[in-house]
Structure formats: structure tokens, C-alpha cells
Amino acid sequence: MQEWWKEEIVYQIYPKSFKDSNHDGIGDIQGIIEKLDYLQDLGVTMLWICPVYQSPMDDNGYDISDYYQIHPDFGTMEDIDELIQKAKERHIKIIMDLVINHTSDEHAWFQEALKNPDSPYRNYYIFKEGKNNQPPTNWRSVFSGSVWEKVPHEDNMYYFHSFSKKQPDLNWENPQMREDIYRMINWWLDKGIAGFRVDAINFIKKDQSWQDGPVDGADGLSSCFEFARNQPGIEVFFKELREKTFDVHQCMTVAEAVGVPYHQLDIFIGEKGCFSMMFDFNYSHIDITEHEEWFPLQNWTMQEYKDKLFLSQKEIFKTGWCGVFLENHDMQRSLNRLIRNPQERTPKVAKALGQLFMFLKGTPFIYQGEEIGTINNHRLSINDFDDLNSHAQYRRALQEGYSEEEALDFVNRRSRDNTRSPMSWNNQRYAGFSDTKPWLANNEYYKEINVAGEINDSDSVLSYYKQMIALRQNPLYHQTFVYGDFTPLDSEEYVIAYIRQDKQNQILCIQNLQNKTTSFPLEHYSKVLLSNDDIHIYDHQIQLSPYQSMIILL
Q1: Which residues contact 62 (CB under 8 A, 6 or more apart)?
Q2: How confident is the model at residue 14 (pLDDT cuts 50, 70, 90)?
Q3: Which of 196, 375, 460, 521 is the most exposed place for a label (fewest CB within 10 A)?
Q4: Quick count: other Cβ atoms within 10 Å of Cβ 514?
Q5: Quick one: pLDDT at residue 205?
Q6: What is the C-alpha separation between 276 and 254, in angstroms, rounded?
Q7: Is 73 among the catalytic positions?
């Protein structure tokens, strides 16, 4: 079925790190407005804006203290209105981040719940009595430590948090709380945004038996994932959420739902599901454990990665739709994650990885800086990291017996700060992001990798991204790339090849993800639509240079 949101090309913006307009070292909404022409020129049609709501910034905005206010660091509600309008003038839609599993502990609801145990807001969150002067269960939070935090000035009373202790989980079992959430969602949709990326949504239902789990770490705790994620009955909440908000506005929604088994996809997407689409993390999390801990990094092969990617395409589209992504704000840069040899993290490789994802079936999401081939920073001390989870993972690694050096290595590789460093706009001081010291250190490679150095270079990563987007939007091939079938092809381990096909076109997408030349059989072809290197096709063979990628009309 054709739907408008299937045809978008989305660009994810981490506002704090995108562009500073008011000289305080922090990115803001006016900074995004300044760069709308750049985004229009790139070819994107939708922006996903990470949280800009009022927040104490314990988890960089994912701890919201007021859904109806904008954090002063980012600007004002008038700035949001201006962004929506000026983006619309450029045929660009806006979706916001929707964080409704938890709030900040500074939200008025939670403050009232703490102040008065008899307040109706006490039931907006999850409060439980402890057992034998211990927390109610032995569950470990996503950010390490217990999911339970002692309530100040109350004996034996705790509140629940899946993430940081400053992010108390909302109690979705409470109908009144849900109605207040729906009211807020509709308020934002009435404002004119096109929809939401929905944060950690598969955490909203908890196992109501509140039983201890098997100890799985040196801290004596048990991962909360088995009890607080993908729980039976969550579909009831989803049905009501959809009916009272999303369906009313015919908006676009994309669910962040890590760890969803493929046989449960129909709860999330498709005709019966709550959301327009979802992200599948099965291939992107190939380097970490099932409990999402960064130590030790998991061994994996390109064949395993390819198998997971192809399986994702097969299973998702049996049921519904997905957003496909190479990078986001919660992971490291793709060149570091997927290319083991630092010497091979080159612009050519960035083009190949970008192409691999741009032409998969699904709505493409591009993360800021990906389009110029940004790579990770290397930090010398844990004190150089801002990210809450980086510090948590460092502590967990030490608990598990790793040395400080080993723990720091894990964090350097996987830290969310790798994608949160300020955007590199030019090679001047502070990389054109700001004219003052940024809130987080600039990417150390900003003098070599930046927008200004690539924007007029026809051979740059940025130029290649423009070409890929233009090809995907080309009327001759648009329907094929959006709605056409996806067929994986057998190939050697480091070659990822697939066909996109409909009644009009048959198009081969092929990437050689290794540092050596190889070949691939090709019986016939019409023309090469795109390539990141010189084209050599003869004797029914494609000769693929190291890290060459091609799009071929058959």
C-alpha cells in the first residue's frame, strides 16, 4: 500500500550539537533554521528533531520536566513554530522525539508524587515497598545499578526507573496518566508537526508479578529486559494510544523498540500495529551483548552481519514497514563500527556504507555528520565523556573485572558521544559549529572532514549522498526504490548484493566491503546509475575495486 511516509528521506538532528546561533556553545533551534537551505540542497524531506523540551539534561533531554515548554538553551516555542513554517516552505516536514516511558524526576507530576503520598500523581509513577530493607526486586537498570531508587524521607519506599534514577518510569496501568499523555501528544500534532519518533516505547508495560530475576552480573543484579521490555499486554496500551492520537491526525510514527522478536512485529507495525514503522536493531547491535552492555565487544563476521540485515528485510516486510538507518545518536560512527582497520575508514568506504542502506527497502534515516563521513573521537579519560551511559558502562566493566584501560577502550568504541560531538561545518576554530567553546569537544578530525571542504567537491562523501538521494527520488526509479521487492543475492562474504524490482525496473545494488578487488557475475545490464569508482564490466563480470559500490539498471 502506498503511504506518504514511506517516501520520505529523513535527516536526524541532535540539536545540542547541530549549530549554535547565539554564541553559547550549545546548538539550538535557530541554528537548525540557519541550515535549512543546506538540508534542502541535500535533498531530505523530513527532519527528526531530538528532544528540545524543558529538561534538567541528566540524559541530554530524554528526561523531560515539561512537555509543553522548550528548554531555554534551545530557544522558545516561537522558534519551534518558525522552524515548522520555514521547513514547510522548503517542503520539509518535522517530526519530534516523543518520550513517554518516563519523565524527569523534576516533572511537576513526580514532584507532587514525592511531596504527597496520597496525591493522585503518586499513581502516575511506580512506587513499591521494599523487601527486608532491600529494593522490591533485583532488576538492573539499562544505565546500570538497581531500577529502584529510595524515596527520600519515607521508610522502605522505592520508585522505579528503567534508565537513570532521574528518569522515573510512568505507570501506564493508570488510565488518567495515559489520558494526560494523549492530550499532550495531540497538542503537538495540532501544532503542525508530521509525527514522532517514539523513544523506548517497548518499555511501557512491566511484569506485574515483581519477581526477582536470575543474577547475571558481578553486581548481584538481573537485567530488567526480561521484566520491563516487550511484555505481554503491551498491545492493549498500543491500541488505545493509536486510536486516541496517531489515527486522529494520520501522522507518521517510528518506534524505537530494541529486542522485539520478529514474531511479535504485528503489535508494533502493519495493519494491527500501533506505529507507521519501526527501527530494527538486530543488525546494528551485532557488536554488543543481548543485554546491551558494551563489554566485551562481540566477535562477528561480515557474513553474520549480512545475514542479519537480509533477515531483517525479509521479516519486517512480511508485517509492515521499517526505517532503515546506518547511524543514530545512541551509537558510534558506522565507519568505526563496521570497518575494523582504521586505515580503511576513507571517504570511498563511507560512500559504500551509505549506499548499502540508502537503497534498502524502508524509509531511509540519515544521522547528522554521516553524510560527510564523520568518524569517532578518541578520548583519553573517562572524565572526557559527557554521556550518562558511557559512565555507566565504564563502571559495569570495572565491576566485571576489566582494567581501567580495557573499560576505557570499550567506552571509546561504543560511546554515544561519538555521534554527539558537534557537527563539523568548516575547518575553522570550533568547526563552524560555534564561535565559542562547545559543550562537548569538537570531532578531532574536523579540519579534514567538514561540510565546507566537501560541498563543492564532486568526489566527496557529501556529493555522493546528494547523488544517492537524487537517484532515489528520480521519477524513473522512485517507485522501484520505495515500493519494489527486495531480493538478496548470494555472494562472497564481503560482497553485499541485492535486487530492487517492480514492473518497471530491475535494479542491482552491490557493495564490495573489503580491501581487495573482486568480481561478480552479470549476465546483462542496461546502464550504471551510480558508482563510487571507475566502472569495469566485461565478459559478463563486474570488476569491483576495494570498497566499490554500484547501482546498476538491469
Answers
A1: 51, 55, 97, 99, 163, 167, 199
A2: very high
A3: 521
A4: 17
A5: 98
A6: 6
A7: no
Distance CA 509, CA 529 (A): 10
Say how far apart CA 265 and CA 249 lie, in whole Å: 23
Cβ-contact 268, 274 below 8 angstroms: yes
Structural Rg of the chain based on CA atoms: 23
CA-wise closest residue to 234 among 245, 242, 246: 242
Residues 479/461, Cβ–Cβ less than 8 Å: no
- The Cα–Cα gap between 179 and 432 comes to 44
Note if 235 is an active site residue.
no
C-alpha cell at 176: 488518567
58, 59, 79, 256: the active-site residue? 256
* pLDDT of residue 60 exceeding 90: yes
Question: Do residues 121 and 170 make contact, with C-beta atoms less than 8 angstroms apart?
Answer: no
Choose between 252 and 1: higher pLDDT: 252
What are the phi and psi torsion angles at 357 (to 5°)?
Answer: -90, -30
Domains of the chain: 4-100+176-379+419-465 (3.20.20.80), 108-160 (3.90.400.10), 380-414 (no CATH), 485-553 (2.60.40.1180)
The residues, ordered by sequence, that sit 6+ positions from 421 with a Cβ below 8 Å of its Cβ are 17, 374, 377, 440, 441, 442, 443
Whether the per-residue pLDDT at 290 is higher than 80: the answer is: no
- Model confidence band, residue 289 (pLDDT cutoffs 50, 70, 90): confident
- The Cα–Cα gap between 83 and 76 comes to 11
Give the H/E segment covering residue 510.
strand 506-512
Q: Which cell goes with 325?
A: 538507518
| pLDDT of 443 higher than 90 | yes
Quote the DSSP letter at residue 11: E
Identify residue 431 by its one-letter amino acid code: A
Cell numbers representing residue 178 in the block: 495515559
- The whole-angstrom separation of Cα 328 and Cα 333 is 8
Closest CA to 64 of 85, 80, 50, 76: 50
From the list 271, 262, 260, the residue with the least C-alpha distance to 234 is: 260
Total-model pTM? 0.97
Cell of 425: 561545518
Q: Distance between CA 455 and CA 469 in Å, rounded? A: 15
What gap in Å lies between CA 419 and CA 447, rounded to an integer? 17
- Residue pair 268/238 in contact (Cβ under 8 Å)? The answer is yes
Is the confidence at residue 296, as pLDDT, over 90?
no
**Nearest alpha-carbon partner for 296 in 164, 414, 203:** 414
Answer yes or no: is pLDDT of 313 > 80.
yes
Q: What is the pLDDT of residues 15-31, one digit of tens each?
A: 999 999 999 999 999 99
Q: All 3 cell numbers of residue 473?
A: 527520488
| Residue 196 grid coordinates | 514522532
Residues of the chain with pLDDT > 70, as a percent, come to 100
> Which of the residues 8, 20, 169, 199 is marked catalytic?
199
Give Cα separations from 155 to 133, 136, 318, 521 (angstroms): 9, 13, 51, 72
| Residue 402 CB partners (closer than 8 Å, separation 6+) | 295, 296, 410
Condensed to tens digits (0 to 9), the pLDDT of residues 84-118 reads: 999 999 999 999 999 999 999 999 999 999 999 99
